């Protein structure tokens, strides 16, 4: 799309009249105190028929079920909300989106983060892995093929929401 307009950054930096064919939020909604209000605002920034792509952690993922708060998906205290498929359907419907497609997805590095988080001390991302962290990551690498089996099931680490808006509203 050589003639497309791309913006990476806060939407507030753009003119209120700027609208888009596609808006992508990648691991944003789980950090917000009011995701509904933001989704309503983003819907207003879409052109008629435009799509919003949202990537969010899956609160029912395999790592959450196995490791609870030690899962990178939970990532206390940064993730304020963990989403279920049903919760996402309700949220996006309430935000006024007319069509939803929700797909499970597991980023390959998510399990590496969970492996480190299981054995690491706070601040582990700011320093090289310790010996025990390297062992955990090696174990993760050995079982990765099995973990990838869950990447397209409801036990995946993230949800990808593709939502369309049939009509445009003014931004809020």
CATH superfamily of the domain at 19-106 and 153-164: Vaccinia Virus protein VP39
Q: How can the largest sheet be summarized?
A: 4 strands, mixed
Whole-number average pLDDT? 86
CATH architecture verdict of the domain at 19-106 and 153-164: 3-Layer(aba) Sandwich
Q: Total strand count, please?
A: 4
Oligomer: single chain
Top-tier CATH class of the domain at 19-106 and 153-164: Alpha Beta
N-C termini distance:
29 Å
- Which structural category fits the helices and strands? alpha+beta
Q: Which fold name corresponds to the CATH topology of the domain at 19-106 and 153-164?
A: Rossmann fold
SSE order, one letter for each helix or strand: EHEHHEHHE
Number of helices: 5
Beta-strand residue percentage: 15-25%
Low-confidence stretches: none
Calculate Rg over CA atoms.
18 Å
Globular, elongated, flat, extended or rod-shaped: what is the shape? elongated
Overall helicity: 25-40%
Major sheet strand order: 1-2-4-3
At a glance:
The chain has five helices and four strands. It is of the alpha+beta class. The chain is elongated, with a radius of gyration of 18 Å.
């Amino acid at each position: 799309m050589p003639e497309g307009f791309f913006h990476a950054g806060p939407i507030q930096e753009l003119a209120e009249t700027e609208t888009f064919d596609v808006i992508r939020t990648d691991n944003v909604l789980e950090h917000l105190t009011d995701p509904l209000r933001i989704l309503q605002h983003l819907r207003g920034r879409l052109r008629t028929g435009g799509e919003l792509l949202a990537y969010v952690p899956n609160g029912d993922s395999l790592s959450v079920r196995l490791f609870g708060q030690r899962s990178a998906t939970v990532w206390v205290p940064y993730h304020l909300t963990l989403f279920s498929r049903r919760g996402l359907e309700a949220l996006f419907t309430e935000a006024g989106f007319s069509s939803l497609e929700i797909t499970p997805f597991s980023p390959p590095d998510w399990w590496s983060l969970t492996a480190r988080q299981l054995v690491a001390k706070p601040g582990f991302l700011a320093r090289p892995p310790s010996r025990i962290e390297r062992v955990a990551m090696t174990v993760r690498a050995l079982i990765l093929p099995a973990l990838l089996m869950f990447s397209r099931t409801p036990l995946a680490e993230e949800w990808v929401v593709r939502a369309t808006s049939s009509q445009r509203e003014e931004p809020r």
